Each structure stands twice: as structure tokens, then as C-alpha cells.
Amino acid sequence: MAKKKQQSAGTPATVALTAAGTAFTVHAYAHDPAAASYGEEAAQALGVGAERVFKTLVADVDGELTVAVVPVAGSLDLKALASAVGGKRAAMADPAAAERTTGYVRGGISPLGQRKKLRTVLDDSASAHATICVSAGRRGLEVELSPADLAALTGAVLAPIGRT
User: Of the residues 1, 12, 26, 163, which has the fewest C-beta atoms closer than 10 A?
Assistant: First the structure.
């Protein structure tokens, strides 16, 4: 009896990208558990400007989990995020709820291939770059793709949600 072959090397994010036929590049690096910032560690390890490496944050907007994708060089403007999705109040989500809902661990949450598809907002600064890097679904693994492809695959709206 033949066993179904699994893609053990892939993550849900890379599997989703492959299934969609999207052009992307995977970048792996040795993650340091003592790193103060996952995103800044990725930018340094990959030799990519911090304005091109984006972190995936999960916030609670009026009781609904929402994904925010912002440059690691800055921070998330919660008021702007709420406004971008027509909400009133936003706060960072409980980390356990974010992990449970996305299927990823903190520091490895990808906007792609999440267990439950969440509303997603991509900082509009992404459109200034031909490609950006986001988590590929685990610490020490990034995926590089065009911002337009990321927005299309996640159904993201572009809005100015990042602060420098």
C-alpha cells in the first residue's frame, strides 16, 4: 500500500505559495533564540534592509483577530489598523490566541497558509519595493515575494499602518 507523500520540508506558507503558482524565494538562516527581535534578526541574517523585511502581527480589532504586516524597522499603529478595516479599537491579540488561530508559533507567524484565514492589512510602504520578505512559517525561515502577490494571496488591503 502506497503512503501519501508529505512535503516535510515545506511549511503551510510555502505549500500555499506553490499551490498558487506564485514566484517566491525561500531564505533560511540560523535563528538565535536569544535574539531581541525576530524581524531585525532576519534582516541582519539575510543582509536585507529592514524596510524590506516585514513582520506579521496579530491584533484584535473590535473582537475580531486581524493580521497586520508591517516593516520590522518600525511598529504597528493600532489606530490606523482599526481604521483600515473599518473598526474602532485595536489591541495586540493574546499570543496564545494568535498561535492557535494561525497555526504558527510567535516569531514564525506567516501571513500565508494560516489555519484560519484572517483579515489582513499590509502596510502601504510595501508597494515601494519589487519584493519583500515575510515569515515563511517558522523562526529562521523567510519567504521573498512581490507585495502584489502577497496582497492577492491574503486578500490584504494596503494602508498606512506602520510607524517609524
Answer: 1
- What is the DSSP secondary-structure string of 11-78? -HHHHHHHHHT---EEEE----TT-S-HHHHHHHHHT--TTTBEEEEEEEETTEEEEEEEETTSEE-H
Q: Kindly report, residue by residue over 72-109, the tens digit of the pLDDT.
A: 989 999 999 999 999 999 999 999 999 999 999 998 99
* CB-neighbour burial class of residue 36 (10 A; exposed 0-12, middle 13-18, buried 19+): exposed
Contact 149, 96 (CB under 8 A): no
> What angle, rounded to 10 degrees, do the helices at 12-20 and 147-154 form?
100
Give the per-residue pLDDT at 40: 87
- The pLDDT value recorded for residue 9 is 57
Distance spanning both ends of the chain, measured CA to CA? 57
